[in-house]
Amino acid sequence: SVMKPSGRLPVSRIATMVSSVLAAAHGLFSMTAEKKPFLAASKKETKEAGPLGFITDFLIGGVSGAVAKTCTAPIERVKLLIQTQDANPKIISGEVKRYTGITDCFVRVYREQGMGAFWRGNVTNVIRYFPTQAFNFAFKDLIKALFPKANPKTEFWTYFAINMASGGLAGAGSLCVVYPLDYARTRLASDVGSGKAQFNGLVDCLVKTAAGPAGIMGLYNGFGVSVIGIIPYRGVYFGLFDTLKEKNPFKKEHGVLGIASKFAIAQAVAITAGYASYPFDTIRRRLQMQSEKPRDQWLYKGTVDCAVKIMANEGLGAMFKGAGANAIRTVGSALVLVLYDEIKHLISLP
């Protein structure tokens, strides 16, 4: 049967998110009323770190992420299918044939499940990615404001280290909030074959997993390795981009040349970050694939056991399965960085 493409993110859900953030931001930033020495010293930095700046960063980051994810959903689906196929029960049992590569996966998904299947799990992904990117960008600027200010021209390595730390900590913080949605996205997108889907949607996936042997903690299977992996990923992703864009000779240009130069930097950064953290991502996806099963049916006992078994049974290359598709998918990650900067410029934010 042909799946219909997922619908768009409901406006009511976005409104709920915004209301929650407005309430949270008031408490989070009440401390900015006092002038503390470790906080931003200038009026411009204080404005950026204040409630309005946080909320604006949250919304711009979320919208940029949602647009980019929807555009690159087919590549994301193929990447996940290839990455998780060795932990997929239907493929292990022989019910569904293995995918031999990116092209084979694209062709078979279209033939077996229809065009709409490339967006299977996309609504879940957007619901997950909106707050993820929103919190990432908002937390990054908040955390960066807590560090001493460094001049990128005279204190390059200090500036670079601050950017890396801000990005890594922002990624770890946002992951705590949205991990169950990331788990559900992996399970929905990893469903294979032309038969009945294992889960009927986001809520069904979360409910069935939470009702399983591991309980609510089943939604956090692979969380430990995810935190370990997200710190270098977001550290490189945000830190390297914020650092290199200051070296961009066309950074003040907002025409074709300026946007193209920013995108080139963002693309290089996204690919670098993706490869740096990909083995961690592979392990967490494998762990997520077994969450709703009884423990005696688990392929892996935990993070270390998963890593050891993959290396012993499949070799080092297995840690990077789907990395080629992931490199293509980083177009979306690069697009998020550029969209965020350009939208901030369009609404004349510092």
List keywords for this structure.
single chain; about 350 residues; mainly alpha; Mitochondrial carrier fold; about 65% helix; about 0% strand; globular; disordered N terminus
Task: Note the main sheet.
Answer: none
The CATH topology name reads Mitochondrial carrier fold
CATH architecture field: Alpha/alpha barrel
**Low-pLDDT windows of residues:** 1-11, 17-47
Number of helices: 13
CATH classification, class level: Mainly Alpha
Residue share in β-strands: under 5%
Please, what is the average pLDDT? Answer: 81
GO molecular function: ATP:ADP antiporter activity
Subcellular location: Membrane; Mitochondrion inner membrane
GO biological process, one term: mitochondrial ATP transmembrane transport
Solcar repeats: 52-146, 158-247, 261-346
Q: If you had to describe this structure to a student in words, what would you say it looks like?
A:
The chain has one domain: Mitochondrial carrier domain (Mitochondrial carrier fold, Alpha/alpha barrel), CATH 1.50.40.10. Helix content is 67%, strand content 0%. It contains 13 helices and no strands. It has helices at residues 11-28, 43-49, 51-71, 73-84, 89-92, 102-113, 122-146, 156-189, 202-210, 223-247, 256-288, 303-314, 323-346. Helix 3 (51-71) packs across helix 13 (323-346), helix 4 (73-84) crosses helix 6 (102-113) and helix 4 runs antiparallel to helix 13. The longest helix is centred in the middle third of the chain and has 34 residues, at 156-189.
